[in-house]
Amino acid sequence: MSCFQAKRKLFTYVFSGILITICSVSLAGSLRVLTFNLYAAGINTGDSIDASLEVIRQADADIVGLQETRAERSPCLPDDCPPTGSSVASLIADQLHYNVYDQVGPRDALWANAILSRFPIVQTAEDDLGVMIETPNGLVWVFNLHLHDAPYQPYQAVGIEYGDAPITREPGELIASAERTRGAGIARIVKQIGDAVRLPVMIMGDFNEPSHLDWTEAAVAVGQQPLVVLWPASRTLAKLGFIDAYRHVHPNPVLKKAWTWTPLHDKGEPEKHDRIDFIYTRGLGILDAWILGEPSPVSDLVFELWPSDHRAVLVEIELVP
To answer: Which of 24, 30, 56, 34 is closest to 246 using CA atoms?
Structure first.
C-alpha cells in the first residue's frame, strides 16, 4: 500500500545531499500517541514554535503528552530550575485544533506539562497527573509525567559532574539514588493507576531515568552501558503490568538504542546518551513505535529541523475489545 492509498505521513531529511522521504502508515481504527519534551518549543533558544508544531503535525498524533511547555529560568541549575513565563501549550493546541489540558500539579511529578487531544477530555486525575479521554473506540486514561533530573544517576555512573551528586558505579547506590530522586513522583502515579484500574491506561513523559530493559548484560558487553542496573521506575511499572511500548516493538537495546537524550551534544563536553522518554501502556494493543528526531542513526522518523534537546517517542496503539 502506498502513502497515497492510506493515511499518509511524510518525514523528510537531507542525507549526503539527497532528500529522503520516509512514509509511515497509520492503520484505520488505531491511535497515534506522542510524548514530546518541547524544550520550551524554541523559547529557550530564541526560536519560534514553528518547528515544534511541525513535529506534532507530521507525527499526526491523536494524543500528545508535552513536557517543558514553559521556559527554563536563567540560570538553570541542576537542583534549582523552576519554569518561568507562559505555557505554549494553548498556543500549540489552537494552531493544531486540539483540546488541551495544562498540568500545573506537584513539582515531584510535573515540570510545565500539558496533554493535547483530538478527542474530548472528559475527566481529570488528582494532582493534575492525567486525564480521561473519550476516543472513538472507548475511554482511556492518559498520564503525562516529568520527573526530577537531579541527581541524574547515569551521570553518576560514568563520572560526569552534575550538581553535587557523588560519582558511583555501584548498582545498589544508583538504584537508591534514583528512588530518592523520583520515588515520590512514582508513588503519585501508582496511586492514580489504582484509581483508573478498570480502563486502559497510558503513562508517558520524560522520566529522567533509564530503563532496566536497556542497561542489560548485552548492552554492557558491547560498551553501550557501563553496568547492569535494575532501574526502579521502569521496574515498578513493569510489576504493575505496564508495557514499555518502544521496547515491545524493538526488544533488542543493542540493535535499537533508541536514545532520546540527547540530540544536542557539544562533542567537546562529556555526555551519556540514554533512553529516558517513554510511553507505557496497559490494556492496549501496541502496533508500532518510533523515535522522532534529527537526521541520525538513532532516529526512526527524521526531521531536517529538530527543535528540542530530547528526541520524541511516537506509538501506534489500538484499544483491545
So the answer is: 34
Q: Could you give phi then psi for residue 23, rounded to 5 degrees?
A: -110, 130
Residue 9: what pLDDT?
A: 45
In tens, the pLDDT along 14-42 reads 433 333 334 444 555 799 999 999 998 77
DSSP per-residue letters across 195-250: HTTTS-EEEEEE-SS--TTTS-HHHHHTTSSSS----HHHHHHHHTT-EEHHHHHS
Sign (positive or negative) of CA dihedral 228, 232, 237, 241: positive
Predicted pLDDT at 28:
58
Mean pLDDT estimate for the chain = 89
Q: Which of 57, 54, 51, 52 shows the shortest CA–CA distance to 69?
A: 52
Burial class (CB in 10 A: 0-12, 13-18, 19+), 32: buried
The whole-angstrom separation of Cα 37 and Cα 310 is 6
Percent of residues in the chain assigned helix, strand, coil, to nearest 5: 25, 30, 45
Reported pTM: 0.91
At position 125, the amino acid (one-letter code) is: A
C-alpha distances (whole Å) from 234 to each of 179, 221, 230, 280 are 11, 22, 8, 9
Strands (E), 99-178: 99-103, 113-117, 121-124, 130-135, 138-146
- How many whole angstroms separate alpha carbon 78 and alpha carbon 89? 24
Q: Dump pLDDT digits (tens) for 245-265.
A: 999 999 999 999 999 999 987
